[in-house]
Specification:
By secondary structure, this protein is of the alpha/beta class. The chain is built from 17 helices and 25 strands. It is elongated and about 135 Å long.
Length: about 650
C-alpha cells in the first residue's frame, strides 16, 4: 500500500511539472511573438526592410546590414518604441564602404544693439577667419562680432557662397535682424524704423538678390512714437477737418473718427496710430470734446498730450458757451486740463489787426516784413531766421512797433519754426492767431505742425494750418504706394493682355514681355497684399471654367516667382465665369471676360495692444526670440486689367 501511495504521489508531481513547463513555454512563445510583431511593425513604418527581428524569451535580437551608422541607430530607436530598450540585443552591422552623409550647412547671423553673433556649420573651404573678417567689414570695426562657427571637411553645396555673401553684404542695412543662410536660400527677419523704410528695404533686398538665391523676407515696422500726442479738429462755415489726429490703437481711431463724423467731418480722414498716448482715456476724452464742438455748432478743438483747448466760433452765445464748456470740463477725465476761449466779437469799424508776415519761396528765399515789438526783437528775429533758413537767403523788412501783445515775439519765432518745415509757404502772425500755409512733401506734416504749434504757443492760442501735400516734393516718392503699384500694373498692360494657350493655363509667348515688366515693377513695390484674379467667359461647364481660372491665376503667380518677385503676400484666386465685365453673347464680350486682374487685398481690422516705449528699444532682441510686431495695414484700392 505504501509503495502504491508513493508512486501515485510521484505521478501527480510529475504531471504538475510537465504542465508548468508547458505553460511557461507557451507564455514565452506568446511574449516572443508579440515582441517580434511589435518591433517588425515599427521597423516597417520606418521603411527598414533590411533589418531582421528574432526573440528568445524577453530578449529581442536585431540583425541585418544597415546602410550607415545613423540608420542603425534609428532602427534601435524604432524598436525601442515597441519593447523596453533593455531587452534589445543589437546584432546589426554597418555596410562596408557606406559613405558619410554630407552635413546640412547653415549659418545664423544675429544682430542687435550688442553687436553681431555668427552661429552654424560651414565647409572648411569657406575660411572662417575670412568670413568673420567680411562680417566685421560689413558692419564696421566699432561693432562687436562674436564667432560661434564650426566646420566640416566637405565640399560646399551649390550656391552656398552666393547665399552666404549676399547675406553678409546686406548686413549693414539690417541693424536689428536675424538672417538664416542655407545653400541657395536666405531668410531675413528684421525691423525697420517706419513703414516707408520697411518698403524701401524690401525693394532693395529683392532687387539685390542673386538669381540663384531664394529670398524670404519678414520685415516689421513698429508703430512710431508720437510726441506730443496731438489732435486738432476745426469746424467752421467752410466745413470740418482734422489738422492732426493721433490714436494709440485701431479701436481708439475708430472711436475718434466716428465722433468726428458726428461733429460734421465729411469723407475720409487720416488718424495716425502710434506710441506715446498720455492717458488710456485719450479716445474717450476726444469723443467728449468733439461732442462739445458739435453742440456749439463749430469751433477749434486741440489736444496736446493732456492740455485741451476749445476755441468757439465768433458770435457764439455766452450762455450756451458757458453751459457746454462747463459740462465738458466736468466730464473730462482728471488727467486732462481744459482751456476754453470765446473770442471777442470785433466792433463795427474797428481797424484790422497789425501783422508780421514771413514768406518762403520754392528756391529757399525768405522775406520778413511787418511789425515787431522792439529793435532788439528785429535783430533777434532776423538772427533766428538765418539760423533756420540760412544766413544768405533772409531779407529783413520788419520794423519796431509799440503796443504789441506781450507774447508777440514768442509767436513770431514759433511761426518761423513751423515755416521752416515746409518746402515753400507763408506765415502770418496777428493779434488773434498764427496762420501757416504752403506746400510740403511730408504726408503727416499737418499733424506734426499742429503738435509743434500747440506745444510752442501754449494753451488757448489759436492757429490755422493750410498745408498741402505734393507728391513731387515727397522724398519717398521713388517707392510707389501699394495703390500706385496696382495702377501702374494697369498702365503696363494697357491695350495688351495676359494671354494663355487655348483651353490651357500655360502662358503663351506673347505674355512674356508683359510679365517681365510687371515683375520689375513688383520688385520695387515690395511685399504688398495682392490678389491675382482669374476670370473666364461663360462657355463650357461652370466647374471647368472655375478650375481653369484658378489654374491661370496660379500660373501668373508662378511666373512672377520665377522672375524673383517676393510673393509671400500674394493670393491666386479663380472666379470662373462669375464676374463678367462684358456680354458673353458676343465674341468681343467673351474675349473681354477672359482676363487676369490684379487687386489689393483689404486687410482685416487689427486691434493693437498697448505698447510701451521700451518695446521699441527691445525690438531687435524680440526678433531674435521669434516675436513679430504687426505693422499697420494698408488701405484697399482696386484696379482692373
Amino acid at each position: 500500500m505504501r509503495l502504491s501511495s508513493s508512486i501515485l504521489t510521484f505521478g501527480v508531481f510529475a504531471a504538475a511539472s510537465v504542465l508548468a513547463i508547458g505553460s511557461a513555454y507557451l507564455s514565452s512563445r506568446v511574449v516572443e511573438k508579440a515582441s517580434i510583431a511589435g518591433v517588425r511593425k515599427e521597423l516597417d513604418r520606418e521603411a527598414m526592410n533590411w533589418a531582421t527581428v528574432d526573440a528568445n524569451g524577453l530578449q529581442v535580437f536585431l540583425a541585418g546590414d544597415s546602410p550607415d551608422e545613423a540608420v542603425r541607430f534609428r532602427a534601435v530607436t524604432a524598436a525601442g518604441r515597441a519593447v523596453d530598450t533593455a531587452r534589445i540585443i543589437d546584432q546589426m552591422t554597418v555596410a562596408e564602404g557606406a559613405a558619410l552623409a554630407k552635413p546640412r550647412f547653415s549659418v545664423e547671423l544675429l544682430r542687435n544693439d550688442s553687436g553681431v553673433s555668427i552661429h552654424g556649420l560651414v565647409p572648411v573651404a569657406s575660411d572662417v577667419e575670412a568670413l568673420v573678417s567680411d562680417v566685421q567689414d560689413a558692419v564696421g570695426r566699432d561693432v562687436p562680432v562674436s564667432n560661434f562657427l564650426e566646420t566640416a571637411d566637405f565640399e560646399p553645396p551649390e550656391y552656398w557662397d552666393d547665399a552666404l555673401y549676399f547675406a553678409i553684404a546686406n548686413l549693414d542695412d539690417l541693424v536689428r535682424s536675424q538672417i538664416s543662410v542655407e545653400a541657395g536660400a536666405v531668410r531675413i527677419r528684421a525691423t525697420s524704423p517706419d513703414r516707408a523704410a520697411k518698403r524701401k528695404l524690401e525693394a532693395d533686398l529683392t532687387r539685390r538678390a542673386p538669381e540663384n538665391v531664394s529670398l524670404t523676407l519678414s520685415l516689421t515696422a513698429p508703430r512710431p512714437v508720437i510726441s506730443p500726442f496731438t489732435m486738432r479738429f476745426v469746424a467752421d462755415d467752410s466745413g470740418a477737418v482734422f489738422d492732426a489726429c493721433s490714436a494709440p490703437d485701431e479701436d481708439s481711431r475708430q472711436t475718434i473718427l466716428q465722433a468726428a463724423s458726428e461733429a460734421g467731418l465729411d469723407g475720409q480722414a487720416n488718424c495716425r496710430i502710434g506710441l506715446g498716448v498720455p492717458s488710456p482715456r485719450w479716445a474717450e476724452a476726444i469723443q467728449m470734446g468733439l461732442g462739445a464742438v458739435a453742440e456749439l455748432g463749430g469751433g477749434t478743438l486741440t489736444f496736446t498730450d493732456t492740455d485741451v483747448s476749445l476755441i468757439a466760433l465768433d458770435g457764439t452765445d455766452q450762455g450756451t458757451f458757458d453751459r457746454i464748456t462747463g459740462q465738458f470740463e466736468n466730464d473730462l477725465p482728471s488727467a486732462f486740463a481744459l482751456t476754453a476761449v470765446l473770442p471777442d466779437t470785433p466792433e463795427e469799424g474797428e481797424v484790422g489787426p497789425i501783422e508780421f508776415v514771413a514768406t518762403l519761396s520754392p528756391e529757399g528765399s525768405v522775406q520778413l516784413r511787418g511789425n515787431l515789438s522792439s529793435d532788439l526783437a528785429v535783430v533777434t528775429t532776423e538772427s533766428y531766421a538765418q539760423a533756420r533758413f540760412g544766413s544768405g537767403v533772409v531779407r529783413m523788412a520788419a520794423h519796431a512797433t509799440e503796443d504789441l501783445p506781450t507774447n508777440w515775439s514768442h509767436r513770431v519765432l514759433a511761426g518761423l519754426d513751423a515755416l521752416s518745415s515746409l518746402s515753400n509757404g507763408a506765415m502770418i502772425v496777428t493779434a488773434d492767431s498764427v496762420k501757416l500755409s504752403g506746400n510740403t512733401g511730408e504726408q503727416n506734416a499737418r499733424a506734426a505742425l499742429s503738435g509743434l504749434l500747440s506745444e510752442k504757443l501754449g494753451k488757448g492760442e489759436e492757429f490755422d494750418i493750410d498745408v498741402q501735400y505734393l507728391e513731387r516734393l515727397d522724398p519717398t516718392l521713388a517707392i510707389p504706394t501699394p495703390e500706385e503699384c496696382v495702377a501702374k500694373i494697369v498702365e503696363i498692360i494697357g491695350d495688351r493682355k495676359i494671354t494663355f494657350e487655348p483651353s490651357s493655363a500655360t502662358l503663351d509667348e506673347s505674355a512674356k514681355d508683359i510679365m517681365d515688366e510687371i515683375a520689375e515693377l513688383l520688385k520695387i513695390c515690395g511685399d504688398i497684399p495682392l490678389e491675382i484674379q482669374g476670370h473666364t467667359d461663360s462657355q463650357g461647364r461652370e466647374i471647368m471654367n472655375q478650375e481653369l481660372s484658378q489654374a491661370r491665376a496660379e500660373s501668373v503667380l508662378d511666373a512672377l516667382r520665377q522672375r524673383r518677385v517676393l510673393t509671400s503676400a500674394y493670393d491666386a484666386t479663380g472666379y470662373g465665369e462669375a464676374n463678367p465685365i462684358a456680354d458673353n453673347e458676343t465674341e468681343e464680350g467673351r474675349e473681354a471676360n477672359r482676363r487676369i486682374e490684379f487687386r489689393l487685398i483689404k486687410p482685416e481690422p487689427v486691434v493693437e495692444e498697448q505698447t510701451t516705449l521700451e518695446t521699441i528699444q527691445d525690438a531687435g532682441d524680440a526678433i531674435v526670440e521669434g516675436s513679430d510686431t504687426p505693422a499697420p495695414d494698408d488701405q484697399e484700392d482696386k484696379s482692373n486689367e
